[in-house]
Amino acid sequence: MASNDSMDDNFIQVNKKKNRKSFKFKKYNDYCKNNQENVINLSEKLDEKVKYLKTSNFIKEVMESFDSFKILKIDFIRCLALGSVSINCDVILYQLGLLILIKERFNIKSENISLYDPVFTELDENFLTNKLGFKIHVEDPFIKSDNGNRDENKIIEMKGIYYLPHCPINVIEEMIIKSEPKLVIGNSFIVHSEKMISRKLYFEKYPKFCQICNLVEKNLLNKEKKPKENFNTGNNKEDDRKEDDGFTVVENRKKAIKKKNRNRNKNKNKSKNENPEFNQIEEKIVLEKKINDIESEYFSDCNIIAYRKNQMNRIGGWGNSFSDFAIHEII
């Protein structure tokens, strides 16, 4: 018969034959119930994660990276695809903790923190809105009026961060078109692009996203051609170059591009009909030209700072919460 004494918040004591004791997990649904006990429990866990993040070099360097972009003021944060705080507790709470620290850094009002994820539970929404004071919006509240344009009197002067912890490409594409973000943090766009099986197919479905990725890749190649240039600050002092600042250029398609150039030189005298690889290279060149020819009303370039995956996993206790984390400045 089960005892009424509980050992801690996570386990329940159970008596078996011969007075042996064993433990079993509380029912999964107990943690997701929308009640005050679970709200307090989430709040305490979030406080622990925030305190831990504050002591990490990762957070220090993320905050310093805002200085490298000369970002002095942020008025709002729009967070998409955070995930369920109550279901995927530790990973999501670390990611929510980063949002809290950015909010504190720029002194952003809680009412100007807008989140949306279709997986939010009633407990999630209760915790995020009533406990933290944030807002839940299906549509981006910071960007457009009824006529589809920005509110000239209120929104145009506001500067915001778009935080996308687990955002799929289709949501990113829609956000780029509707919200026209200038600063995006979350998983690196380059990591997304490297997973593309067919860039042509992705270009047809997500042209704006592909254009931004193309701009990022060009900038990264230019950075690699200038190894003496400090990627984070632009400072070329010898002492600064010797320091490891915790950031690195994201690994991109450099090897593929080198291979493409070798194949092009090797096969330049061959007929296109005799060389299928030549046709593929030509197709990529045409596709890249189409990407570059896309007209954009609000961006012409994109810079990126990405945190080292191996170092982050080594020094952080947050698992894969920030495994491909990057900051994108869309210009």
Ordered list of secondary-structure elements with their pairings:
Elements: E1 11-15, E2 21-25, H1 28-32, H2 36-54, H3 57-68, E3 76-80, H4 89-106, E4 113-116, H5 122-131, E5 135-136, E6 160-164, H6 169-179, E7 183-187, H7 189-194, H8 199-205, H9 207-225, H10 238-242, E8 247-248, H11 254-267, H12 276-293, E9 302-307, H13 309-315, E10 325-330
Parallel strand pairs: 3-4, 3-6, 4-5, 6-7
Antiparallel strand pairs: 1-2, 7-10, 8-9, 9-10
The chain-level mean pLDDT equals: 74
The number of E-state strands comes to 10
Individual helix count: 13
Low-pLDDT residue spans: 1-14, 20-28, 147-156, 227-253, 269-273, 275-283, 310-314
Percentage beta strand? 5-15%
What general form does the structure show? globular
Polypeptide structure, described:
There is one protein chain. With 331 residues, the protein is an alpha/beta fold. It folds into two domains: 1-32, no CATH class; 34-330, no CATH class. Helices cover 46% and strands 14% of the residues. It contains 13 helices and ten strands. It has helices at residues 28-32, 36-54, 57-68, 89-106, 122-131, 169-179, 189-194, 199-205, 207-225, 238-242, 254-267, 276-293, 309-315, and strands at residues 11-15, 21-25, 76-80, 113-116, 135-136, 160-164, 183-187, 247-248, 302-307, 325-330. The strands form two sheets. Strands 5-4-3-6-7-10-9-8 form an eight-stranded mixed β-sheet. Strands 1-2 form a two-stranded antiparallel sheet. A hairpin with a 5-residue loop joins strand 1 and strand 2. Helix 2 (36-54) packs across helix 4 (89-106), helix 2 (36-54) packs across helix 5 (122-131) and helix 8 (199-205) packs across helix 9. The protein is globular and about 65 Å long. The chain starts with 10 loop residues before the first strand and ends with a strand. Residues 1-14, 20-28, 147-156, 227-253, 269-273, 275-283 and 310-314 have low confidence and may be disordered.
